[in-house]
C-alpha cells in the first residue's frame, strides 16, 4: 500500500508538470537505536556491524519494492527523468566501516542518555527529566564530528556530510548521474 500510494503521488506530480524526480530508498533501520533499543532482537540476529538483521531485512524488502515501482514509473511516465538513489548502501557502509572513515561508536547516540547505546526513548536530546531522584539534562557528546548517530534516529551533521559526499557524484544512483546533472534544467 505504501509503494502504490507513493507511485500514485509521483504520477500526480507528473500530471501537474513534474518531470524530474530524485527518489531515494530508506536507510538501514536496524542500525538505529530508536528501532533496536525498545524492540531488541536475539544476539543471533545481530550482524557484524551490530545492527538488527530482521529490521534491516524489512528495509531491504521495502527498497526492493520501491526499486520495482521506479522501473514501472519510468515506463508509465516516458517524459520523466527518474533517478533512484541507494542511500541504504551508503549509510550501511558508513556504519559498518565507521573507523575507516574517521568515526567512532557508530551505533551509540551522541545526544542521548543511558544504556549501552546512550539512548532512552523517555528522554530525548535537549530534554530534562528526573531519573532515580536526580535531574538529568540530555546534551551532546563531546565531539559530534566523530559520531554517526545524533539522537537515535537522525544522523550527525558530520555523518550527513559524508553521506552527501558519497551520493553527489552519482555512484549510488540509477542511472549513475551526478546530483548537479540530476538537478540541471
From TrEMBL:
Annotated InterPro entries: GDSL (IPR001087), SGNH_hydro_sf (IPR036514)
Pfam entry (one): Lipase_GDSL
Gene3D superfamilies according to UniProt: SGNH hydrolase
GO molecular function terms noted in the UniProt entry: hydrolase activity, acting on ester bonds
Signal peptide: none
Record key words, sorted: Glycoprotein
Family: Belongs to the 'GDSL' lipolytic enzyme family.
Protein name per UniProt: Uncharacterized protein
Taxonomic source organism: Stephania yunnanensis
